């Protein structure tokens, strides 16, 4: 095994351990969550009414942005991610609160009929985040590839949405990891816009 392969293997192991610890913290926060956890997210998005945005359909113990997405849909286009395949960027299909859904990959619901568009704001799910605006995802690189693609086309605001308990002291990072512009939790708004 080459030194590069050993380094990659070591980083993968560190990331796996960080994810495991973060999932435990997120599960505890999910079980203890209080109504209104999305209040700060609604506050942030109120300043962007009508701007095309994409949220996500929460799975497992993710914090749920659905109420905020429904409110935003009254003012402009809202989409949800649709996985196109391993190693590919996400596409975002228009979502409506009353629209028909089908099962997508990883158990997330997606619109029954695909109607793709490029959002200018992304509400990004995550496993962990740090105080510098970095995120740890599930390991597929979907959001990193997607943010890189969208940001190469136009300014794109990436807002991580998470429980406070998902904050980590430090995260293992790679050069391909895309930073977040903001992180919104149930108690605060962290702004990293560069």
Could you give the topology of this structure?
Elements: H1 3-32, H2 39-45, E1 53-54, H3 66-73, E2 78-82, E3 91-94, E4 101-103, E5 109-111, E6 116-117, E7 121-124, E8 128-129, E9 135-136, H4 142-153, E10 157-161, E11 182-184, E12 189-191
Parallel strand pairs: 1-2, 1-7, 7-10, 10-11
Antiparallel strand pairs: 2-3, 3-6, 4-5, 8-9, 11-12
Description:
The chain is α/β, with parallel strands linked by helices and 194 residues long. The chain has a single domain (3-191), classed as Rossmann fold (3-Layer(aba) Sandwich), CATH 3.40.50. It contains 4 helices and 12 strands; from the N terminus they run H-H-E-H-E-E-E-E-E-E-E-E-H-E-E-E. It has helices at residues 3-32, 39-45, 66-73, 142-153; strands at residues 53-54, 78-82, 91-94, 101-103, 109-111, 116-117, 121-124, 128-129, 135-136, 157-161, 182-184, 189-191. The strands form 3 sheets. The chain has an 8-stranded mixed beta sheet with strand order 6-3-2-1-7-10-11-12, with helices on both faces. The chain is globular, with a radius of gyration of 16 Å. The mean pLDDT is 90. Belongs to the 5-formyltetrahydrofolate cyclo-ligase family. InterPro entries: FTHF_cligase, FTHF_cligase-like_sf, NagB/RpiA_transferase-like. Its cofactor is Mg(2+). This is 5-formyltetrahydrofolate cyclo-ligase.
